[in-house]
Each structure stands twice: as structure tokens, then as C-alpha cells.
Amino acid sequence: AQTVTQSQPEMSVQEAETVTLSCTYDTSENNYYLFWYKQPPSRQMILVIRQEAYKQQNATENRFSVNFQKAAKSFSLKISDSQLGDTAMYFCAFMNVPAPNFGNEKLTFGTGTRLTIIP
Amino acid sequence: DTEVTQTPKHLVMGMTNKKSLKCEQHMGHRAMYWYKQKAKKPPELMFVYSYEKLSINESVPSRFSPECPNSSLLNLHLHALQPEDSALYLCASSQLDLAPSGNTIYFGEGSWLTVV
Question: Measuring CA to CA, how many Å separate A8 from each of A21, A22, A51, A73?
């Protein structure tokens, strides 16, 4: 079974600064996906970024980027130029790729990191 | 447009009531999911439908009954719930293919359920 660990329950950073959220995972699989989801106080789960394990290049989405270290099973999220709207709970998540048996995808979530951006 | 719509946003029900949560997506996704989320916890998977067939049931009590009338709709029928079932219920969908976004799960805003 896969496990996802987020070791930082809470973090805070000044607006416009850069912050890095940590995530490690454990799996025996070689082919999988990793995600960061953001859940603001409104509680909608919003996809931030996605990384395919077979890709060596780190994914980026505007101010969000990841540092994917497959051998170390590490998947950290960097938020640059942080904004007040980035205040949220951030979940790291793991998904197997069960192809060709699509339909059995499961997301395994970490326990989350509550990030507060301070004005 | 990645949109999953859930209704109602809030629901209060008694332990003897029968109610339903509804979910709709128009992205052509062929997998739909129900997750349950308690306060300050990550979401927990309840059910997965793929191609309108139930593919995963995570040992959910029978007082929760899922239904997938067609590829765009997913319902969760609720009956004889307990106060501990009060939670945020999240619906989600994904495309189910090898496209770049095929295995990405997109979530709705959730339905807050309170059982009294």
C-alpha cells in the first residue's frame, strides 16, 4: 500500500515571499502520478499541479513548481511570490497508474499542510 | 473548463430521513467518485464509478447508496444516517484514458451534510 507523508502541519510566510511545502511517499510502483491540491476555506479541492513519475522534468504552473526526486520519493511544492489567496490547506496526493485497467484509480492523500500568507 | 457541480451545498437531515446528494459534470469524463472529508482530515474515498459501473466500494456502510444514472450524473442516496456521518461530501471526476490529463481527478465544491 502507498503512503504519503506531509511533515509540516502548519506553515506561515509573509506575502511575496517564497515557501516550500514538503511531501514524501512510499511505493513499490514505478509508474504513478503525484499531485498537489489546494483547499481554501471554501473547502473546494483545487488542483495545483501534477507530475508524471516517468518525466524527469519538474512540473511548473505559473508561480507553482515542484521538486520531484524519484529516487528519494520526495515531491515538494514551491510557491513563489506568495499571495493572500494562496492561504489554504495543501494536500499532496499519490495515484497509481493501473492501465490498462482504468477505473480503479485511487488518490492517496497526505494529512495536509495548512499554509497562511501574512499580509 | 474543469467543473463538477454538486447540489445541495448544505443539507441537514434527521436520522430517519432519506435524502440524496447530486453531482454533475459535462467534461465527458468517464469516471466519477464520492469522497468523504471530516474536519481537518484528508478526503477518504467511498465509491468509484467507471463507465457507469461501480468499480470500487471502499467498504462503505449500506446506509450510503451510490447511483450513476448516466455518464454525467452521480447520486449518493442517504438513509438512516448517524451523527458521525456529518461531513463534507466531495464528488469528483476524471477522464480515464492515456491523455495527459487522463488520470487527473477534478473535484466539486462539496456538499456539507449535518445529521441531527
Answer: 7, 7, 21, 17
Q: And the C-alpha cell for A88?
A: 489554504
Q: What is the DSSP string of A16-54?
A: T--EEE--EEE-S-SSEEEEEEEE-TT---EEEEEEETT
CA atoms of A3 and A70, how far apart (whole Å): 15
Residues in chain B: 116
User: Tens digit of pLDDT for each residue in B55-112?
Assistant: 989 999 999 999 999 989 999 999 999 999 999 999 999 887 655 556 788 999 999 9
**DSSP for residue B95:** -
When pLDDT is averaged across residues A67-82 and rounded to a whole number, the result is 97
Is A103 in contact with B109 (Cβ distance < 8 A)? no
At CA A58, angle to CA A28 and CA A66, rounded to 5? 85
| Separation in Å, CA B99 to CA A53, A56, A70, A101 | 15, 18, 22, 15
Residue of B48, B88, B109 lying closest to A103 (CB–CB) = B48
Instruction: Reply yes or no on whether the pLDDT at A101 is more than 60.
Output: no
B2: chain A residues, CB-CB within 8 Å: 47
